[in-house]
Specification:
This protein has 22 helices and 6 strands. Among the domains are: 42-206 and 501-522, Serine Threonine Protein Phosphatase 5, Tetratricopeptide repeat, CATH 1.25.40.390; 296-391, no CATH class. By secondary structure, the protein is mainly α. The two termini are 34 Å apart.
Length: 522
């Protein structure tokens, strides 16, 4: 009815009163209250706000279900079990954990959509900001930085997609027509090419961390782009390039003082450590007393990770008990390694309801981002809303960079630098106690390239445990099949009864969401 009424009204308006040309002009007048893109992107403030908006989907963890990235990075791996109140609590995560994923998994659908929301916002910035004039509201330096931030963010969103799904649609432009919104699936290599191209351009435009005002800490930096390029070239097994980019950010730290390992490892997971010396890039969260249930993407500015991973015992935070460390991870730590008790809590007698707090035989609780105090001698930090946490998610720490650099140097036959980077991380971890965590070679590791590789991989596991890295490390190294088979064989009979067999060449990535395949005719 409305479309018919429109046609009739248009015809009557032209009869006998207006010429055909004047009728056309009248019909083409802009609608009141509608702002064109070119009218919107007219000031530096607009450009900054648009880039700010491009960061936001990184923080999303909930729409119609929870989809924090650690549900893949930790739970799919040998580091963690799903947890929660039994196996039926968040069935989508149960399927991920046990390699029973179908294309209709809602957690993967929401994760996929959140990343493309971010990509869309980056594409808008990159479509409009380069054509903006430099004036008193935006210097050329600021304009370049904003373009660099958008390119870094687009690369990060695509990286989050490609390492979960493999090939995905490559959309590096603004979709402004029904004729362009259906795009074919690009190969993983094509996506990696785009990521590297974006990061290289971003690295030339972004500022160093020290060049930002305090209010802007958390924005993408030159070091963050270098760290991501290091990660990309490791993923592609291009070790000479990985070492080059790793040295660039290591030099920023060791020569220029842009980054440093925090003296206290635990401070990385306290509020007092946010955007600190060790932070290369982190997702920003803040206290938010509002409820967002039923609202979905972007309603909250806090993280759900705290409540999702806290112990179900009220005396230990009263959380929901997801992402439970495995015995396998617990046993990986060397005797006396203080990182174990900072990472993993054994609640033991503090459990109020053991039947709800024990999952497939595991009683362990993840402490990072959930159960740390708010400073030495403090208590577990309180939440201003029962499901909202203020602590940032550190996507890249300098310790992560050092261990990636060690890996790149090792595979490029620069074992001297590999040992140096490994020792930097172990030295901080021992925290002055010379009786623990000896320098390489140590324990079962002889002074050989193969054993140095094993030592670096061990160090990545214990240093970065429960931070969402493990699964992606296993697939990058090409050892997921052997590792998961060995892990399954050592798990409890109860846990083994739920696990499907790992199929090499299939289970390293997950199927594209069925709804998106249908919508995009993929």
């Amino acid at each position: 009815m409305k479309s018919i009424y429109k046609r009739i009204f248009g015809t009557i308006s032209c009869i006998g009163v207006l010429t055909l040309s004047s009728c056309d002009k009248w019909l083409s007048e802009p609608s009141p209250g509608v702002t064109k893109l070119e009218d919107f992107f007219t000031s530096g403030q607009t450009a900054v706000q648009s880039v700010n908006a491009a960061y936001v989907p990184l923080a999303w963890e909930f729409n119609n279900t929870y989809f924090s990235e650690w549900f893949i990075g930790d739970i799919v791996s040998d580091d963690a079990l799903k947890g929660g109140q039994g196996i039926t609590d968040m069935a989508a995560a149960y399927d991920l954990e046990n390699f029973k994923v179908q294309a209709n998994n809602p957690m993967l659908l929401e994760f996929y959509r959140a990343q493309y929301q971010g990509i869309s916002r980056c594409n808008l910035v990159l479509d409009q900001v380069p054509a903006m004039n430099v004036d008193e509201s935006m210097s050329q330096e600021l304009k370049d930085r904003l373009i660099g931030e958008a390119k870094f963010l687009r690369a990060l969103y695509y990286y989050r997609l490609v390492r979960v799904f493999g090939g995905v649609p490559k959309i590096d432009f603004v979709i402004g027509s029904v004729n362009t919104w259906q795009q074919p699936i690009a190969t993983a290599d094509e996506i990696y090419d785009l990521i590297i191209e974006d990061l290289k351009d971003a690295e030339t435009k972004l500022w160093k961390k020290s060049e930002y005002e305090d209010v802007d800490l958390g924005r993408a930096t030159k070091g963050a782009a270098q760290a991501m390029l290091l990660k990309m070239y490791l993923t592609r097994h291009d070790y000479p390039q990985a070492e080059i980019w790793g040295k660039k950010i290591v030099d920023q730290a060791e020569v220029e003082g842009e980054y440093a390992l925090l003296v206290d490892y635990a401070d990385n997971f306290r509020l007092i450590g946010e955007n600190g010396d060790e932070s290369v890039f982190e997702i920003q969260y803040m206290e938010d007393p509002t409820s967002d249930f039923g609202e979905g993407f972007g309603f909250t500015r806090g993280t759900f990770t705290v409540i999702l991973t806290r112990s179900r015992s009220s005396v230990l935070g009263g959380g929901w008990g997801f992402n439970k460390p495995t015995q396998n991870l617990y046993d990986e730590y060397e005797v006396g390694d203080p990182r174990r008790d900072i990472t993993i809590l054994d609640p033991d007698s503090q459990m109020e309801t053991p039947e709800q707090e024990t999952y497939l035989g595991s009683t362990y609780v993840s402490r990072k981002y959930a159960m740390m105090d708010d400073g030495p001698g403090g208590t577990i930090f309180p939440l201003s809303h029962t499901s909202r946490g203020p602590i940032n998610n550190k996507v890249i720490r300098y310790a992560d960079v050092l261990l990636m650099y060690a890996e790149a140097c090792l595979e490029n036959n620069n074992t001297t630098q590999a040992k140096w980077a490994l020792e930097k991380v172990r030295e901080r971890a021992r925290h002055g106690d010379t009786g623990i965590l000896p320098a390489f070679p140590y324990g079962v590791y002889a002074d050989s390239k193969d054993d140095l590789r094993s030592a670096v991989r061990h160090e990545r596991r214990v240093e970065l445990a429960m931070e969402g890295h493990r699964w992606f490390d296993l697939t990058r190294w090409g050892v997921a099949k052997g590792t998961m088979d060995a892990y399954k064989a050592a798990e409890t009979p109860e846990a083994r009864s739920h696990m499907a067999d790992f199929i090499a060449g299939k289970h390293e990535t997950f199927p594209l969401p069925e709804e998106e395949v249908k919508l995009g005719d993929l």
